[in-house]
Design brief:
The protein has 15 helices and no strands. The protein is an all-alpha fold. It has three domains: about 100 residues, no CATH class; about 90 residues, no CATH class; about 60 residues, no CATH class. Helix 1 packs antiparallel against helix 2 and helix 2 runs parallel beside helix 9. The chain is rod-shaped and about 145 Å long.
Length: about 325
């Protein structure tokens, strides 16, 4: 009697290791693909090459983004206080713009006056008997420009008042010890990645990362399971065969697919040729015997060229 080797899975450690390695590779590669997509979405790069670099280096890039997000969480109370303080104490935008313009003009006049006075003083101290007629007019011209550019006392007073008003505001913000560029950096990067000028590169790199990792992960799973369906698909298939048994019997080739059906048919044929009594049910074996009895006994039955012992199931 032919013995078909059907060792249970727990007695095949090499098969368990193969499945475990394949599953871990598949999950790891696809998870890395998802991380690469997120990394591209949070990337601060502006070119497709830079975004691709962040996709490949998804782990360090996301680690840095995690640290920055953690900074926001750890400083949420300080941030809330800063927002409240700015909302309550920030100057009116129009007044701030006017004050900035006036301050710029006043500081410009002060700078010009200081510069012209220095030039006039330089002309005066460099006067010699041979250049008196040249340096005195130049010194007078510089003094005239300095006098014309001098700011009036009201401008200086307004500048001093504005400094007194802004200084406590800036001091209070500085006391909060908040890194505002770091706070808004990630948000600005995300908005910039999906702006009209970068959204094509961003989505393209994300799609490429997903496609490559999905293909590699599927290939790893295919190797680990030797092409068999995954756990969920196999479970659903077994359930379908149990609930719709009649349909599967009538449409087995369609249900399994032509290639898989051909393999199953070949295996069943080998089992029948090797040992019909072991392979077939008693009723089916009896029908087979009746079939051969009904044939012309004078016609010899050619032995099968197939091997008598089926290959072990691995």
């Amino acid at each position: 009697m032919t013995v078909v080797l059907k060792r249970p899975l727990y007695r095949r450690p090499e098969e368990i290791a193969r499945r475990a390695i394949g599953s871990l590779l598949e999950f790891g590669i696809k998870a890395y693909g998802a991380a690469a997509m997120v990394s591209v979405g949070l990337s601060d790069a502006e070119t497709a090459g830079g975004k691709s670099y962040d996709a490949v280096n998804a782990v360090p890039n996301l680690t840095e983004r995690y640290r920055e997000a953690k900074y926001v969480v750890d400083h949420r109370q300080e941030i809330e206080r800063a927002i409240d303080y700015v909302h309550d104490n920030a100057p009116d935008p129009n007044q701030l713009e006017t004050a900035a313009r006036q301050s710029s003009e006043t500081l410009g006049r002060i700078t010009t006056t200081y510069s012209e006075v220095n030039r006039a003083w330089g002309d005066l101290i460099s006067i010699r008997p041979h250049n008196v007629m040249q340096n005195l007019p130049q010194a007078k011209e510089h003094f005239d420009r300095a006098w014309a550019a001098k700011p009036n006392l009201d401008s200086i007073g307004r500048l001093a008042d504005q400094v007194q008003e802004v200084t406590p505001f800036l001091r209070q913000l500085n006391a909060l010890d908040i890194d505002f560029p770091r706070l808004y950096g990630n948000l600005l990067s995300v908005l910039d990645n999906f702006a009209s000028d970068e959204i094509g590169a961003t989505l393209g790199v994300m799609a490429a990362a997903l496609a490559v990792t999905y293909a590699l992960g599927t290939g790893a799973g295919f190797w680990g399971r030797r092409g068999r369906p995954g756990f969920v698909a196999a479970t659903l298939q077994r359930l379908g065969a149990r609930l719709f048994r009649g349909w599967y019997i009538r449409n087995l080739e369609y249900a399994l697919g032509r290639n898989f059906y051909a393999v199953a048919r070949d295996r069943i044929q080998r089992d029948i040729v090797a040992d019909p009594a072991r392979t077939l049910d008693p009723e089916a074996l009896e029908e087979l015997e009746q079939y051969f009895k009904s044939r012309n006994t004078d016609t010899p039955i050619r032995p099968s060229a197939r091997p008598a012992v089926p290959e072990p199931i691995e």
